[in-house]
């Protein structure tokens, strides 16, 4: 980034600073755009944002056969999310930008190495980052943001007096990590846990069936999933939260603002020290979650569940501000998938869902991706052939 932009973003970040920090003020503004539309504010800006751009076609109607589930979910979520965030001129429509982003995102840690090491150990990440920056730069130079949703437009118009287009392109490249990097693994693990248990799959299908409207049109039957009713049955959202609980691999760093004792006077946290909360430790605590702490229980979040020990989206002042956006998007994707498709794993000769493990090499993630490939046969459900599908809001 240019020196001017860098000092603008870094200004007043110290806790003792009396003047507002542009970075924190910016996050507050974004928070208003991501007001939980799915949790009551039906006419909130987040919802308007979705209306202003092309609705995401999360599942295209092409015939799918053997697919690598991770790669497929990654592509679909990338497309749907960036269409909403960037609108008609979405730079991620170019496959090079899509691939470049994931090269960058998966290699962020080696990029932090000093000196020439990134050029040796992070070539894919460096090249990917440059491709995304180029795409974003072009988006701003060609005024693609003017056709985009109000969030990206407002962000650009607010920041352009303090930074060059090339700075903002870099800013948007990193923003991709917030909007995509955790949504993809969360969607993957939700699909994995639902499809790998026939009872759970049936339960989720029953819920989505109940909010699906069937219309007879001149060219055949259309089934429309009513997105505004996704939360009528809590099972789908509970499954997403539970996937985030059992698969969490991230942490929440916090700066201690003043001396404080925690626990039953057991620990003294000194002012200005850093505390790193390992989410996995909280999520597997038997006192909070009981004997089944290690097990995926789909309806765990349908009733009362521990809020203190749940850090799927972090908490406190830094609570993830994209959580409703991400939950709604994943729920819509899963709803459409369970209704339209059967997924049969094809790993070796086995048709069983084996545990693929988690690849812990990217510490920047809150929820690690699968370690082994999960290859599945995707086939349209036999009883629902010849029907077309849509979302209604
Ligand atoms: C399932 C997907 C997601 C997961 C698991 C996730 C998780 C998290 C976590 C754990 C934090 C840290 C909170 C803390 O330190 O306490 C966080 C912060 C944040 N997330 Fe997410 N996130 C997801 C999706 C999104 C999306 C889609 C966006 C944007 C549209 C987003 C934007 C942010 C931002 C801007 C912050 C920083 C908030 C602040 O410091 O004020 N996240 N997220």
TrEMBL record:
<dbReference type="InterPro" id="IPR036396">
    <property type="entry name" value="Cyt_P450_sf"/>
</dbReference>
<dbReference type="InterPro" id="IPR001128">
    <property type="entry name" value="Cyt_P450"/>
</dbReference>
<dbReference type="GO" id="GO:0004497">
    <property type="term" value="F:monooxygenase activity"/>
</dbReference>
<feature type="binding site" description="axial binding residue">
    <location>
        <position position="320"/>
    </location>
    <ligand>
        <name>heme</name>
    </ligand>
</feature>
<dbReference type="InterPro" id="IPR002403">
    <property type="entry name" value="Cyt_P450_E_grp-IV"/>
</dbReference>
<keyword id="KW-0349">Heme</keyword>
<dbReference type="InterPro" id="IPR053007">
    <property type="entry name" value="CYP450_monoxygenase_sec-met"/>
</dbReference>
<dbReference type="GO" id="GO:0016705">
    <property type="term" value="F:oxidoreductase activity, acting on paired donors, with incorporation or reduction of molecular oxygen"/>
</dbReference>
<dbReference type="GO" id="GO:0020037">
    <property type="term" value="F:heme binding"/>
</dbReference>
<dbReference type="Pfam" id="PF00067">
    <property type="entry name" value="p450"/>
</dbReference>
<keyword id="KW-0408">Iron</keyword>
<protein>
    <recommendedName>
        <fullName>Cytochrome P450</fullName>
    </recommendedName>
</protein>
<comment type="similarity">
    <text>Belongs to the cytochrome P450 family.</text>
</comment>
<keyword id="KW-0479">Metal-binding</keyword>
<dbReference type="GO" id="GO:0005506">
    <property type="term" value="F:iron ion binding"/>
</dbReference>
<feature type="region of interest" description="Disordered">
    <location>
        <begin position="1"/>
        <end position="20"/>
    </location>
</feature>
């Amino acid at each position: 980034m240019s020196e001017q932009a860098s000092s603008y973003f870094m200004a007043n970040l110290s806790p003792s600073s009396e003047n507002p920090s542009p970075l924190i003020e910016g996050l507050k503004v974004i928070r208003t755009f991501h007001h939980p539309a799915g949790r009551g504010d039906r006419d909130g800006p987040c919802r308007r944002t979705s209306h202003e751009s092309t609705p995401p076609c999360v599942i295209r109607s092409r015939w799918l056969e053997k697919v690598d589930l991770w790669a497929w979910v990654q592509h679909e979520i990338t497309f749907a999310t960036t269409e909403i965030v960037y609108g008609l001129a979405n730079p991620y429509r170019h496959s090079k930008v899509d691939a470049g982003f994931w090269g960058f995102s998966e290699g962020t840690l080696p990029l932090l190495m000093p000196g020439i090491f990134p050029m040796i150990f992070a070539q894919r990440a460096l090249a990917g980052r440059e491709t995304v920056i180029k795409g974003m730069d072009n988006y701003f130079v060609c005024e693609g943001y003017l056709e985009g949703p109000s969030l990206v437009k407002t962000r650009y118009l607010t920041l352009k007096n303090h930074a060059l287009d090339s700075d903002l392109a870099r800013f948007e490249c990193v923003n991709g990590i917030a909007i995509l990097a955790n949504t993809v693994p969360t969607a993957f693990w939700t699909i994995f846990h639902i499809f790998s248990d026939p009872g759970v799959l049936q339960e989720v299908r029953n819920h989505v069936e109940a909010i699906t409207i069937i219309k007879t049109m001149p060219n055949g039957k259309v089934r429309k999933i009513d997105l505004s009713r996704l939360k009528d049955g809590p099972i789908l959202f509970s499954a997403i939260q539970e996937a985030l609980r059992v698969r969490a691999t991230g942490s929440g760093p916090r700066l201690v603002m003043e001396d404080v004792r925690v626990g039953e006077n057991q620990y003294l946290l000194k002012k200005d020290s850093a505390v790193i909360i390992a989410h996995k430790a909280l999520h597997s605590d038997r006192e909070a979650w009981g004997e089944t702490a290690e097990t995926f229980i789909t309806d765990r979040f349908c009733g009362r569940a521990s809020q203190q020990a749940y850090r799927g989206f972090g908490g406190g002042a830094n609570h993830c501000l994209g959580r409703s956006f991400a939950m709604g998007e994943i729920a819509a994707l899963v709803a459409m998938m369970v209704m339209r498709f059967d997924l049969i794993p094809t790993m070796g000769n086995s048709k069983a869902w084996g545990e693929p493990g988690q690849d812990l090499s990217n510490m920047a993630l809150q929820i690690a991706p699968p370690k082994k490939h999960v290859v599945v046969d995707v086939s349209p459900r036999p009883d629902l052939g010849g029907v077309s599908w849509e979302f209604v809001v």
